[in-house]
Amino acid sequence: MKNNTISKTFLWMCFGLLVTFVTGFLVSKNVTMLENIYSSWGYVGFVIIELLLVIFLSARVMKMKPTTAKVCFLIYSFFSGLTFSSIFVFYNLNSLIVIFLVAAIIFALMAFIGFVTKADLTKVGTYLLFGLIAIVIVSLINFFINSSTLNTIISIVCVLIFIGITAYDVQKIKELDKLGLPSDNLAIYGALDLYLDFINLFIHLLSLFGRNND
Fold first, then answer.
1. Closest by alpha carbon to 73, among 45, 48, 50?
2. What are the sequence ranges of the domains in the chain?
3. Whole-model pTM?
4. How far apart are the C-alpha atoms of 72 and 60, rounded to whole Å?
5. Where are the alpha helices (DSSP H) in 61-147?
6. pLDDT at 43 exceeding the cut of 80
7. What is the CA radius of gyration of the chain?
8. Whole-number Cα distances in Å, 12 to 8, 15, 16, 65, 203
């Protein structure tokens, strides 16, 4: 494992998170931008763009020029920040900071375990991915029935799933690097995976423990 690859991976992940959180915070302070983003079709449009970007980047990142991959990742992080702005409106800032730190500690611990463990996490990762698919289906059902109890259960399960997936993804990046793949491209590929792991862990912890603004 080339240490510079994993270092670049975490560096780009952190850079992406910084872009997302700064964008979200600044947008939350601009009423006009909030109104445009959360208009009847505006939010749906941004979510679709965000989804298309992550699908495109996931599929093409290893075939892109390194600079193109980095720019696409930052663009995705920016659009994610636009839709992320709502958390700064609905949740208390101190609560956001505390939960962010808790998520960061959990994430760092699981990333370390994924990096140093000798156990093969492939099967565990497969089970977790199937679990994630099941959660997506249940979440779609809950969108229509709007059960607060089910929503809490979904958040708890998602926290557990993304704790495990974090370790799995770090080990996956470590193994992929042994194949001699381009370091810069692999770093962006890994950064995107870990970015999504952290964001989902943070969001579901926030759903469970976040304090709303009065």
1. 50
2. 3-209
3. 0.91
4. 10
5. 66-84, 86-90, 93-116, 122-145
6. no
7. 17
8. 6, 5, 6, 16, 20
